[in-house]
Amino acid sequence: MPLIIEGGRVPSRWVEKKRSSVVVPIDLYVKRAECVSLALINNMPDAAIEDTELQFFELLDDASGDAFVFLKLYSLTEVPRTDRGQRHLNDFYFGLDDLWANRFDGVIVTGTEPRQPDLRQEPYWSALTDVLDWAERNTVSTVLSCLAAHAGVLHSDGIQRHLLPDKKFGVFESATVSDHEFTRHATPLLRFPHSRWNELKENALTACGYEVLTKSDQAGVDVFVKQKKKSLFVHFQGHPEYQAETLFKEYRRDIKRFLRGERENYPTMPQGYFDQASAEILADFQRTALADRREEHLALFPETVAKSLQKTWQPSATCIYRNWLRYVLAKTAEASKFAPVTDSYGAAEPRRSAVL
């Protein structure tokens, strides 16, 4: 079934991809099929915000199965923005006042590029913790991606993340270590991209009641969950939503920062991502860049390598998100047998429309 963007604000890249922008009352769909309503709180930096929304659109669209997924876009206003980034948010996103006034079955919260060693010193920390507290009381389940996962466990349990000696960067295989419905029908080894400078320790998580679902010898803890009040929180240290070329773009960005003198060391090539021929081509470029460090060399960067990239983690990503959507549907149906749950402000659920 299709992913449907709510609120009449559909980013142009998704419209172009789906060739669809017709506003339809949600009630028409509720009568025909199961549906789940989600809020996507996209806090990625300006350079990645449109790619990130498209990544989640495609993943939810693929994972939806027989269910309609209604999605509404939000972002924390305290995340620093350029004029261009703010215009995009003004055109397609809603503020937190709208979030408090609505009801959603689930919420997905992305991270952003950290600027402070202590996340509690970030300018958006207070707004983010308000969202986390709201999600505990008002959703069936909450997905926290990468830095948002680190922020979530810090806020609720005081668990600190630990700086890695180098960026955990690439596509890693993780073994399923818990019999959980989110990994049902999954292959024995799941593959997910990772891109982070910090990690959470397994012993700190399990000591605070978190259940680790998947972990990797190379990447550490991958997916872990914990019930927090009414909402089951699902934490990803990796990025199942990434598109085939996302790690490539990040690698090129980090190389550009090196050539500009904005970072000291040449970035490590992502593991388990490039085929041998592509890795050799990129290694040749690295030798050139190290021998003569100038931004002008970026014009020689081998862009053609991107043509050989494969989204090898697609089956894993679709499986775990499909299981998550089924969980949200089941719990929402179960809750509907009882009195409706209002949000923390006591607001009634408004009549909604969708863009298909």
SSE blueprint:
Blueprint: E1 3-6, H1 12-18, E2 23-25, H2 26-30, E3 35-41, H3 46-63, E4 68-74, H4 83-92, H5 96-101, E5 106-109, H6 125-138, E6 141-145, H7 147-157, E7 162-176, E8 189-199, H8 202-207, E9 211-216, E10 220-228, E11 231-236, H9 246-259, H10 276-291, H11 314-335, E12 353-355
Parallel strand pairs: 1-4, 3-4, 3-5, 5-6, 6-11
Antiparallel strand pairs: 1-12, 2-12, 7-8, 7-9, 9-10, 10-11
Helix pairs in contact: 3-11
Give a verbal description of the structure:
This protein is an alpha/beta fold and 356 residues long. It folds into two domains: 3-243 and 313-355, 3-Layer(aba) Sandwich (Rossmann fold); 247-308, no CATH class. The chain is built from eleven helices and twelve strands. The chain has helices spanning 12-18, 26-30, 46-63, 83-92, 96-101, 125-138, 147-157, 202-207, 246-259, 276-291, 314-335; strands spanning 3-6, 23-25, 35-41, 68-74, 106-109, 141-145, 162-176, 189-199, 211-216, 220-228, 231-236, 353-355. It has a twelve-stranded mixed β-sheet with strand order 2-12-1-4-3-5-6-11-10-9-7-8. The protein is globular, with a radius of gyration of 20 Å.
